[in-house]
Amino acid sequence: MLFIFFDEVKIQPDYPFYHIGGVCLDEEQLIPIQKEMSAIAKDIFGTDRLSRETEIHAQHIWSRSGSFGVMENFGDRVKMLERLIKILGREEVKLIRVTIDSSKPQASARPAEIAFMYFCERADQYAQSQNKIAMLIGDRDGKNSDRFSISLSDYQDKGTEFAFGYKIKNLFESVHFTHSYLNRFLQLADVYTWVVQFWKKQWLHNYTDDKHLAVMEIFSQPEINMFPVKYKDWPKK
User: Fold this and answer.
1) Which residue, 123, 139, 185, 204, could crosslink 180 as a Cys pair with Cβ 3.0–4.6 Å?
2) Between 3.90.79.10, 3.40.50.300, 3.30.420.10, 3.40.190.290, what CATH number should domain 2-221 receive?
């Protein structure tokens, strides 16, 4: 069985892209990766207890905000990001992402719904390729919880939207939601979705300051493979 933990990056006034990033793990990988995430949390916060105060947010690490506001040394924060990215870059950790450009007319009305539809398609395709069933787990703090659950049920029953709709077969049950501060895997999905946004912004703006280059240096390590097993960029034009 596969467990697919996903998070979203919403559209911002100066950034029209909506991202969903998913971390897909086989059941046998859950315990070792949970232990490693807990160890990282303990090194950061002095405890591996799950709480709002010990939640790992990549954006907070990057911008020195939230629980990371007291950490002035950016080099130390980059090392934290590196440890988390190295988990994402492992062979046994499968990545799935969808990016929707809401500046395009066909995507402007409901980017979140379209992104989730494509995410379900890609997640189901990967599960079918592995001959396994899969469960989606998302962040309860998001505003799309009920809508996503109903949408998945519709896709299972009738297929996805647009021409040649795809019927979901290997994603079972509804989407299961929990608060991200109570789940280290959702925090790992947060890191991946932040990485997707970071790459997109880097591609758009080609930042050359020390902070951006320090993070880009992490991805140059040969043992880190961040290429997703399934992805979708829409619309293309």
Assistant:
1) 139
2) 3.30.420.10
